[in-house]
What does this fold into?
Amino acid sequence: MAVLKTTKRLSNWRAPLAAEFAAAEKRAFAWGSFDCALFACDCVKAQTGVDPGTAFRGRYSTAEQASALIGGSLAALVAIVAAEFKLAEIGTGHARRGDLVLIDNRTALGALAVADFTGMYAVCPGAVGLIRVRRHRWKRAWRV
It folds into this structure.
């Protein structure tokens, strides 16, 4: 992955992000195409025009392959990618709409989500559509 000088939100970022959320409401979970990491990357791309997921797309299609790619810590991988794309880590209490959030989804790895437009929830793929996770389950956050 190439290091970018900056990743900034586009002036019209709200409409593309809303479109990503709307399209996701009809999608079924699928490793490698509609999972928490790639949904978050799609949302970053909608807001900035830059896709932080290019290095991962097409490289996995099962939970086992995703786990091998993650390398044991989703939080560590997200921190590395976020730093490469100049997405600063922030306190979860400072996360606002469109920011990336690592959530406690009651699994060992957690899940990556995106703060919604209300600011009360982060959203990530569920079996079909998006699930909403309240702030008390947000563990880390990165500013988009």
